[in-house]
Structures are given as C-alpha cells and as structure tokens.
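Dear Dr. H.,

I hope your travels went smoothly. While you were away I took the liberty of generating a structure for the chain from your last submission, since the lab meeting agenda had it listed for discussion. I wanted you to have the full record in hand beforehand rather than looking at slides cold. The sequence, exactly as received, is reproduced here:
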Amino acid sequence: MNGSNFFGEFQIQLHGPAKNLKGLFNNPNKRIEIECDFQLRNREREYILENCRELLEETIWHGVLPEAFQWGGYRKASFSTQFRDRQPEVDEKMEEKLPELLREVESSFVTGGIRIDESGHVDVMPSILLELAFSNYRPRHIGVVDFHGAQRHYGRELVQGINLNLDQQNQNYSQHALYNYNNKYANVKSEMAGNYIKELLSEKASSEKCSQDHTLTEALKNLFSTFFPDKEFLGPQPTADGSLSFPVRTASGSIHDLDELSSGEKEILYGYLRIRSSAPANSIILLDEPELHLNPRLIRGLPEFYREHLGETLSNQLWLVTHSDSLIREAMGKAGFNIFHMLPSTAENVEQSQLKSMSATGDLELALADLVGDLAAYRPGGKCVILEGGGDTDFDKTLLQRLFPDELRGINLVSGSNKNKVTSLHEILGRAYREGSLSTKFYAITDMDSDEVDIQAEGVGKFSWDVYHIENYLLDEEVISYVVNSMLDKPKFSVEHVLNELKKSAAEVLPGVITHRLRVHLGGLLIRSINLSFDPKIFDISEAFYEIIQMSSEKISRVVSSEATLDRIKEEQERISKDFDGIFSDNSWRSKIPGREILKRYFSSCGISANYNLFRNLVVNRMAELSRKPLGMASVLEKIAKD
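The corresponding predicted structure, in token form, is as follows:
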C-alpha cells in the first residue's frame, strides 16, 4: 500500500493501534455500524459447492498462516514445515465449518456486518461464506468488490518483459482490486502483447483459428467503433525489429500510437479495458466520477455502454458515483438503472436514510427535476420553492443560494423564468393535489408588487417578498460603496455619498413607477370593457363578432366618459402619488421603488466601464462575504422551513 491508494487517501492505517482508524469516523463520539446483504448468483453458488473443500481449506490457511499469503501469493513451498505441522488443525476446522458453509451457500441472502466502537475495537459479524468469498481471489468465478477512484492517470508504457503467467497477474490484481486503484491502469499494452503472443501460440498448436470475440484487442476495437467512429484501432502489430506497435488510424489515414490519445479517450478506453480484462464476474464495481476527463459528447453513451458490456455481459452490479448532470440525465428513466441522491452525513434527522431514490415514473418528479435544471443539485423529496416574481428569476435563485446556503439545504429552487414549464408544473401539481398524491410540499414566492403572476395551482403555499422585487434587498449603501470603490482605480465614494446618490436615483425612478401604476389602472378599465364571447350555437359568426364588438365599444365609451375623464385620471394620479409621500424620510423608498431601476441608474452615473450584471454579482458576493441576510428574505424562508 502507498499514499495513492484508497486507505492512504483518507489517512487510514490498517496496522497499529486503534487510534489509526480515526479516519473512518464521521463523528468520533458515535460507533460505526455497517451491515450489508449479499446475494449469490447461481453460477457462484455452483462453483463454491463444486470446490467447497478446496476453497474452505485455503480460507482457513489464510487465518492460520497469513504470512504465506502476503501480497496475494500462495507460497506453500517456502512454509512447507508449517503447512505439514498444522495440517491436522486445518482439517479439524474444515470439518467444523463445512456444514455452516453449505447452509449459508443454500440461503437466499448472506449478511455481513462490522461494528467499530468509539475506542477503535472492531467486531465482525461471523460469516464463513463471506470470509471464503473475499479470501479467495477468483474473479471469474466468485464476485469481488472492485473500486476505481477519481484520481486516474494514464502514463506512457514501454512494452518489455512480457509475462504469460496468468496466476501471477491474478496475484497482482488481488492486491489492488479494492484499494490501490492507481495500479489498475498500468500495463495495458503489456497485457495486449501477452494476449497477442498467446493467440499466436494457440493458432500454432491447433488447426482452427482461436476465437476473437472476447480478446482484449477486439474489445478495444469495439470501443473505437462505439465512441470514436472516426478512428480505428489496428491492434498489436509486429514490427521489423521484432517489437510490437499499437497503431491508431485516423479518418485522414494518418497513424499515431495508442499513447497519443487524449485524456478523455484514454479514460474510456483504458478504464473500460482495465475492468474488462480482469473480467470480474458476479461482482460489485465502484466507479468514482466515471465522467472524469470526458466532454459531454463522450458522456452521452457511457452509462448504457457500461451497463451492457460490464454489467449485463459479466453479471456485475455497477455503482457510478457522480456529480455530473449530463451523466445522470443519460441514465434517468432508462431500464436497468436506479438513481439515488446521497444526502450529506450531517443530515439533521439521523433516522433518515442518506439515500433518496429518484424516480422517473412520476410526471411531477420529472417536471420538477427538469425545472431544477441540474439533476446533480436536485433533492428528491425535498420541499420545492418556485420563484415567480417578474424580471430575472434566474438571478433570484442565485441570490437566495448565495445568501442562504444553510437555510436552503435540502430545498429545491425553481426559477419561474420558463413560463411554459412552470405552467405545466402547476397543472401537474393541481392534478396530484386532487388525487392526494402530492408528497412534496410546494411554495411560490412573488414580488410584492407583481401584477404579472397568477398562481392557480392547488396545494401551493403562496408568499411574497416585503419589497418591490428581490433586487431591492441589494440596496445596502455600505456594500455598494465597497464594491464601487473596488472597481475604481482610486476609491472616492464614501458610504454617505453612496446613500445620497441612491436616494437621488430613486427620486428619478419614481415618476416612472407612478406612470406604470396609472397605466395598469387605466388599462384594466379598458380591458374589462372588452368581451368577445358569444353563443357557439350562433350560425353567422361574423355578425355575432360585429355585434359584440359594438357592445364592447359602447362599454369603452361609457368608461371613458365616466371613469377615464381627465379629472378622474388626475385624481387617480394624485392618489397613487400619495402612496409615496414621505418615503425618503421613513426610509420606505428601499422597498416601494424598483431596486433594479435604482441600481441601474446609480451604476450608470458612476462612470465605470462595466455592465450592470457584473456590478450586481459583486454586490451579492460582498453580501455573502459579510453574511448579510436581509430580514424580509429570512422571514419568508423561515416560514417555509417551519411549515
């Protein structure tokens, strides 16, 4: 073992005092309990039954004389005296344990467990079958646990000293099947060269050409045709000087060596070949970040390719651990895949499973996952907050995530910018609510003065910010002063100066706000006067439309002569204007006037050659650095969290 292996990465020392196991503990004050059910495939069960005495004897010898099995070897000759002296002891243990082994083999499941208490004492649940399975490295007959970490490196390889001894290869593999993952990607060329020579020898020894279906070279050629159709691997080629080359031909006809492939290409080719060539069957293969080095085009077929060629073909169970939205989308809803979201180990409810299943069968979950956008960020079963204020709701989502990361843990945020998708979600929500199948709680937050949003869905909790819209929460003169001065070559704006300029900008924006509210009022009067509905049984629809248009015209005329006269319009303007009386003395200008327009007007007056979005993002970053949590936002989120 070395620093590049699994245990070294987490600073876990398997030898020495109990304190060396502290790296395993998430909470040193709580014990570790791991329990797992294993199910044997029929082929494994048959193989163990046929070879039970041989396997059991070797398993017992592992415990009686472990030094003979160091580094995966079985050096009986070097310990002949010890083997001879202790053979009766081993025979006695075999007769004692054989009935228990046969009983466990015939059972549907075998349970393994381990407990490590706070002091580091390890207690393992006894199981002779699991002891046998993990003591005897025979991956083509008995399943193994094969771990492939995220720190994969593919170096250049000089082919020399080819070894045709498969037993020695198996001994080497057995030492890094679980933990020493860096060694797994070495010697791929040497392995192909060894297979090439063995195939030549087989052809010389028999009249029939040996089958090419399952060789390493053929697997590599199939990979090229699947992922890199513009390239062709020609297989190991003998050269005039007696060596082997490994050429790849491109679409233009040029030739380059296998080592010249990109990191992404090697990730697919070498990664797959390493697993495939060791040929573990009936095993559990753990792949950490299989999308490493890959662009989205290469990710597209990866899960299905692994499932077909490593899962189904070899009867393996694959665990792909990823943060990639693209990879999750490739597997979502497809046969043969189960997708789980893993919650942090610090989850508040210790009784709650860290794994939450993501199902693609429900319309609601599919629609919600699609709206969240990044499936890696989707929290199945978590509360959902839909931001339906007017304007840039994608920014609303970003602002909430930056200022309230802890409060939003486990909550799905959905931007309302895609109106069609949100409308579809509302329809699905209403149907789920009426059917009583709404397991997730949904909430919608709108701007205080939003007149564009009409939330129709049943079962949705409705809240609004206590300001005109969410960007009003950015009107913090101390933060803005810091940001503006950091964008200038020479700081020149004091906090007091910034406050005065913000008020000035708000005063300049105010007439537009009054105009907008007056326009909404008058537009509503006219729109309510128009009605183009008529009895669908009427035969002459042209005449029907003409008549109702005349009726609407008369209604509009009555409104204009009564409610939309010049005097009434002036009265309404004065009424609206009174709502803003004293806003600068009582500080309510921060909530009643659109913050976005105030900030844009102020920033344009600063003479800084940058766009508004950059300025706005810098303000948010500064607020996050200072842990500024506006009370109006915190209040709404607290109500949602407590509901």
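Two observations you may find useful: Residues 477-627 form one domain. The CA atoms of residues 101 and 129 lie 6 Å apart.

With kind regards,
E. W.
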